[in-house]
Amino acid sequence: MLFAQRLQFLQSNVFADMDRAKAKALAAGRQLIDLSLGSSDLPAEAHAIEAIAQSLYDPSTHGYLLFHGTQAFRQAAAVWYEQRFGIPVNPETEVIPLIGSQEGTAHLPLAVLNPGDFALLLDPGYPSHAGGVYLASGQIYPMPLRAENGFLPVFADIPTPVLAQARMMVLSYPHNPTSAIAPLSFFQEAVAFCQQHNLVLVHDFPYVDLVFEEIGDRGNSSLAPSILQADPEKSVSIEFFTLSKSYNMGGFRIGFGIGNAELIRALRQVKAAVDFNQYRGILNGAIAALTGSQDGVKKTVATFRQRRDVFVNALHSIGWQVPTPKATMYVWAKLPEPWSQDSIRFCTQLVESTGVAVSPGAGFGKFGEGYVRFALVHEPDILETAVQRIAEFL
After folding, report:
1. Among 111, 110, 112, 165, which residue's Cα sits nearest to residue 132?
2. Looking at the DSSP assignment, which residues form a beta bridge with residue 242?
3. Are residues 290 and 77 in contact, defined by beta-carbon separation less than 8 angstroms?
4. pLDDT (0 to 100) of residue 219
5. How far apart are CA 152 and CA 140, in angstroms?
6. How many CA atoms are closer than 13 Å to the CA of 20, on its beta-carbon side?
7. Contact of 67 with 57, CB cutoff 8 Å
8. CA distances to 49, 51, 266 from 64, in Å
9. In angstroms, how far apart are the furthest CA atoms of the chain?
10. CA–CA separation, 240 and 313 (whole Å)
């Protein structure tokens, strides 16, 4: 049986590779502590669950859901955004429901790229950003993220021939996997660059709330600005949100996109060929999450802040010096010798020897090599146990 050539680029996946190593560790009787996948272990809020539960008994929610039927959700998303960032949004033309932000980044290239066109992606970066480009038969130009640049790309380093053939740029801050944040001035530079070179600017924004402000900080929004604050006219930009992180609803697969009306319309065309929308009850739960009490979001942020502090302090206590991240649910750690350039070997040996699973930096791109990503998806005592096992391994 013959398959499309584009599948060749999708054969290697950091999560699939670690799944195999985890299965081997379990078969050997290891007790697994999985810090490799950024799936929150915290529960969704009761008022969101109740809205979904009540929907189950309403037969009008049981059928196909077309775009018009998502109006209430789109309105809730627009109000949430306007209250958060102060930029008006038209829920009819500038909002689209998504099956998580990953769907947006995976499907939008089908609406923007022709075969052979370049997409400018962060390296290291989230794997689905590259996957969507490959599915669209596009080419990837990796923008290196280096510690000395604060894990921000340098636009001036992009070759002119690549820019001539490029159609889109994908950014994502707070950043997975490095946990870096980007100031508004960086986004303003990115918008101007994309306007100059006629590029669509995509901002994947799942960690909008997972920012750890300290006393004296001006608040989360100042540390995690929206791309539309740099492009309030929505001239070239679209931004993707998810309820997976802030509201612990990853398994419900609900997110949304906000931005340029032409891009929203193009993405709608792709979605119409691929799927209907989610079950209406899921959207009702999302509406409850967005419009109800936000105390649960605050608790989630406080929980991950505590876990960050416990985990970073524990690593420091065993001599593994890592910076304290200002955002996300991850710790991005530079590997010690002798694994400084072999993150995959480190991760496979670590899980097979100790049962502690982490993500190899090489799985996020060439410039992720030499690092590993820890996802802080367990209680503090388990995180400390994981570090004890790591210490024994080292």
Report:
1. 110
2. 255
3. yes
4. 45
5. 17
6. 7
7. no
8. 21, 19, 21
9. 62
10. 33
41 token code pair = 């272990």
- 69: Cα within 13 Å, side-chain hemisphere: 16
- Taking residue 381's Cβ as centre, other Cβ atoms within 10 Å add up to 9
What was the pLDDT predicted at 14?
65
| Confidence category of residue 215, pLDDT binned at 50, 70, 90 | very low
Q: Which of 351, 362, 363 is nearest to 24 (CA)?
A: 351
Kindly state the tokens that stand for 82: 């306007």
Which residues does 215 contact at the CB level (< 8 Å), separation at least 6?
none
Which amino acid type is present at position 7?
A: L
Q: For residue 21, what pLDDT is reported? A: 84
Looking at residue 8, its pLDDT comes to 85
Q: Which tens digits make up the pLDDT trace of 248-278?
A: 999 999 999 999 999 999 999 999 999 889 9
Amino acid of residue 49 = I
Kindly report, residue by residue over 30-75, the tens digit of the pLDDT: 899 999 988 999 999 999 999 999 999 999 999 999 999 999 999 9
pTM strictly above 0.90 = yes
